Amino acid sequence: MTAKLIRGTEIAKAIQQELKEEVKALKDKHNIIPGLVTILVGENPASVSYVTGKQKTAKELGFFSIQDNQPADISQAQLLTLVDKYNKDPQIHGILVQLPLPKHIDENQVLLAINPDKDVDAFHPINVGKLMIGEASFYPCTPYGVQQMLIRSGVEMSGAEVVVVGRSNIVGKPISMMLVQKQKGANATVTMCHTGTKDLAEHTRRADILIVAAGRPKAVTADMVKDGAVVIDVGVNRIGMTAEGKAILCGDVDFEAVKEKASMITPVPGGVGPMTITMLMLNTANAAKAASGLK
Ligand code: NAP
């Protein structure tokens, strides 16, 4: 069997098109323009590139957006004051502080300072807790993207055996928590694996849906995958450079071998990656609607 590709690039494009129309309608009918601020501290090249991508997408979709660059030596108190300024700004519905922050700043304190209603990354403990009890206002962007890819590819989650490799706070735990909820696009039986798992392959081989977020190149090989499984590869690993200086990427799954066993699989790049920014925009539009009592 050669697996059907779940192309995140195309699904993201479709969601962005829907969002663009919704943003136009929000403006025309309700005079609401979703507003996003991205706060970048320092000049870490990867962070600069992520923030640039987010700003570009926000502008393309018709959002009001601010790119707020701060020097690497900004103090914790100054950064908290800045977050508070945007908490109070009615034009801003989503606040994204690009991580990682410099070592002298306590990331948790900064994330805690964001108004949970504007926490479009969904990292605030209030939003983590609401997700846990099935009453989320926002879903964290990468897990939300994974769930949307599955839904839009017609994958039945209810009753499925889902195995997640990874238990990070930004991918493994939230996607597990989302898919176990007694809700549409969820209701699965979920197993979460990590480095303490005794026999990883024993678990992954049971999976109807295998979600891999380990940050280890090609950690999942074909012998670890059940025939006909749906495989979502969240991993992004830089394994070299092209002669032109472009990063060569691979996922956490041995794509070439696993695609011969799976029924559906996401490529890297072009899989989960493009979904993450799109879900950030969806969260921001939803925050704007909620702020006006529309949702
Ligand atoms: P992380 O914080 O490093 O967590 C990795 C998790 O995988 C940990 O829970 C770790 O277990 C587990 N793990 C690592 N090796 C394992 C193994 N051999 N067997 C079983 N479990 C193993 O990483 P993350 O932030 O979740 O990211 C995971 C990957 O997704 C990375 O490649 C990252 O670049 C990528 N990512 C992509 C996007 C996107 O937009 N596409 C977004 C976020 C992350 P322990 O807890 O026991 O250490």
Describe this structure in words.
By secondary structure, the protein is α/β, with parallel strands linked by helices. The chain has 2 domains: 33-117, 3-Layer(aba) Sandwich (Rossmann fold), CATH 3.40.50.10860; 141-273, NAD(P)-binding Rossmann-like Domain (Rossmann fold), CATH 3.40.50. The protein is built from 10 helices and 11 strands. It has helices spanning 8-30, 45-60, 76-87, 107-113, 125-132, 141-152, 172-180, 200-204, 255-258, 273-291; strands at residues 4-5, 35-41, 64-70, 94-97, 161-165, 189-193, 209-212, 230-233, 237-241, 247-250, 264-265. A 6-stranded parallel sheet has the order 1-11-8-7-5-6. Helix 7 (172-180) links the parallel strand 5 (161-165) and strand 6. Helix 1 runs parallel beside helix 10 (273-291), helix 2 (45-60) packs across helix 10 (273-291) and helix 6 (141-152) packs across helix 7 (172-180). The longest helix is centred in the N-terminal third of the chain and has 23 residues, at 8-30. The protein is globular. 42% of the residues are buried. The model has no long low-confidence stretch (mean pLDDT 97).
Radius of gyration: 19 Å
Describe the main β-sheet briefly. Answer: 6 strands, parallel
Overall geometric form: globular
> What's the average pLDDT?
97
- Percent of residues in helices: 25-40%
Structural class: alpha/beta
Strand content: 15-25%
Identify the CATH architecture of the largest domain. Answer: 3-Layer(aba) Sandwich
What is the fold named in CATH at topology level of the largest domain?
Rossmann fold
Which CATH class of the largest domain is shown?
A: Alpha Beta
